[in-house]
């Protein structure tokens, strides 16, 4: 596989600016060969403002940025792109726009066959996986399918939150919600990425990076804790991993 992915849990970490906590990872990931990044702002309503924020950040890192919503032909913009960055916001709105603009297969081809770098944060990380079943967002619009780009054969839960032992809130914890998902048959692994964590995928190798850990959920198994530096390459082999 030629895929190169940087899947970030969150765009902003407490105490820092937009993409500040992962800017060194971005520069290392994109390298010097990439000169311009194609930004996909579909997850937020105000695409112009979102593009300005992203452009300012990427220009400060030495990269030009084109926003796909400014293109008269989004498919052609993907075909010509050197790298793709899909930002956060509402995952349902984002996925619907990807379908509406006929971009699912185009992005898959550019990333999986042509090997251009793909970066996602939050909702942009959600849509890189098999489906958006494990997003935290409300279904404010109705995409034609919950199936996403499928750049990796598992799901991710960005902004993963551990239970607060002092809280009196009686609703489901994030862990309980993921367990409910795994009560359905043939559901893939879910990687709970805490804020400050990201997954780097290079071909058939996946490595947890960032400053916080992750929690891995396999159907029928107890969740496991993992620190930055963990090799998650096994998640790329089999989408169900029932043999583990």
The ordered H/E elements are EHEHEHEHHEHEHEEEEE
Largest β sheet strand count, sense and barrel closure: 7 strands, mixed
Helix share of residues? Answer: 25-40%
The count of domains is 1
**CATH homologous superfamily title:** Class I glutamine amidotransferase (GATase) domain
Structural class: alpha/beta
Reading side by side through the largest sheet, how are the strands ordered?
3-2-4-5-1-8-9
Second-tier CATH architecture: 3-Layer(aba) Sandwich
Q: So what's the CATH class?
A: Alpha Beta
Tell me the Rg in angstroms: 17 Å
CATH topology: Rossmann fold
Distance between the termini: 23 Å
EC number: 3.4.13.21
Function: Hydrolyzes dipeptides containing N-terminal aspartate residues.
Family: Belongs to the peptidase S51 family.
InterPro entries: Class_I_gatase-like, Peptidase_S51
What's a concise summary of this model?
This protein is an alpha/beta fold and 244 residues long. It contains seven helices and eleven strands. 43% of the residues are buried.
What does this structure look like?
The protein has 244 residues and is an alpha/beta fold. It has one domain (4-237): 3-Layer(aba) Sandwich (Rossmann fold). It contains seven helices and eleven strands. It has helices at 23-30, 47-60, 74-80, 91-100, 104-113, 123-126, 174-182, and strands at 4-8, 36-40, 64-67, 84-86, 117-121, 155-157, 190-193, 197-202, 205-210, 214-217, 224-226. The strands form two sheets. It has a seven-stranded mixed sheet with strand order 3-2-4-5-1-8-9, with helices on both faces. The protein has a four-stranded mixed sheet with strand order 6-7-10-11, with no helix packed on it. It is globular, with a radius of gyration of 17 Å.
